[in-house]
Amino acid sequence: MSEAGETEAAARAVRGRRVVIAGATSASGLACARELAAAGAEVIAVGRDAARLAALVDDVRAATGRAISAEVCDLTDESAVADLVARVHATGGPVDGVVHLVGGWRGGGGLAGQTEEDYRALEPALTSLRHVSRAVDDDLKASAAGRLAIVSSTSVERPLAGSANYVALKAAAETWTRAVGQGYAKAARDAGEAPRAASVIFRVKSLDGLEDDLARAVVGLWDASPDDLAAPITLG
Q1: What is the DSSP string of 112-172?
Q2: Whether 21 contacts 47, CB under 8 Å
Q3: Which of 45, 53, 124, 133 has the fewest other C-beta atoms within 10 Å?
C-alpha cells in the first residue's frame, strides 16, 4: 500500500474514536491533537492550565477546521481524575483511547546529582499514568479498539547514572503499561474473544523534532492489531 493509502486507512480506523490526550498542552500534545482531529477522532485535551488549553483548542480549529473539547484536571489527584472521567462519560460516553504525554526531564551530575527534589518533580508522570489508566480501564477493555499509549525513552535500554531518576520512572511507566496490556488480554481471553485493546510504548531518544512523527504514529494505532503493537515502537 502506498504512503497515501496507509494514511487514509489509518484515518478511517480512528475516525469517530474518542481519544483523551493527557498532558495535551505540550508540543507533542498539540501535534497529536491536530493529527487526531484531522483524521476525524473526537479529541478530549486534558491539562492543568485553562489558558493554554483554550489556545490549543483554537489552534486545532484553525489548523483542521474541527472542534475538540478540553478539560482542566490535575491528573495526580485520583479523585479529580475520577471526576474528569465522569464528565467525559456524561458528555459523550466511554473513550477508545488515551495518549499519555505527561512528562519532563531532569538529570545530570552523575548519581550524586540525582536529588530527591528532581525525582519528585518527575514522579507526576507515573502517578498520572496510574490514575488515568485505572479510571478508563473498563472503557478500553470494552471498546472495539481500545488503545493506551505512552512515550518512554531509549535510555531504558542503557540507563546512565546521570539520568537514574528519569530512567527509573520511565522503566516503571513501561512496566505499568505492559501490566495494563496483560489485563486487556486476560479480559478478552476470559470472555472468549479475540484481543481488541492494546497498550503501546513509544520510545524516543528525544521528542524534540519528532512531534509530528509521534502524532502520525498515534493515529495509526487504530489501524494496527493488538499483536502488532506488543513490542515497544522506537521513533527517530
Answers
A1: GG--HHHHHHHTHHHHHHHHHHHHTHHHHHHSTT-EEEEEEEGGGGS--GGGHHHHHHHHH
A2: no
A3: 124
Phi, psi of 68 (to 5 degrees): -125, 165
Which residue reads 471498546 in cell numbers?
143
User: Can you tell me the distance from the alpha carbon of 28 to that of 199, in angstroms, rounded to the nearest whole number?
Assistant: 19
Beta bridge partners of 153: 204
d(CA 54, CA 35): 18
User: Does residue 39 contact residue 15 with C-beta atoms inside 8 Å?
Assistant: yes
**Grid coordinates in use for 17?**
474514536
Task: Decide: pTM greater than 0.85.
Answer: yes
Q: Which helix (H) or strand (E) holds 33?
A: helix 27-38
For cell 498542552, the residue is 25
Query: Residue written as cell 546512565?
Result: 160
Question: What letter represents residue 93's amino acid?
Answer: G
Residue type at 145 in one-letter notation? A
Instruction: Quickly tell me which residue has 479498539 as its cell.
Output: 145
Pairing of strands 42-47, 18-22: parallel
Cα 9 from Cα 154, distance rounded (Å):
29
Q: What is the number of residues in the chain?
A: 236
Instruction: Convert the pLDDT of each residue in 123-181 to its tens digit.
Output: 999 999 999 999 999 999 999 999 999 999 999 999 999 999 999 999 999 999 999 99
Q: Are 73 and 22 in contact (CB under 8 A)?
A: no
Tell me the three state secondary structure of residue 233. Answer: strand
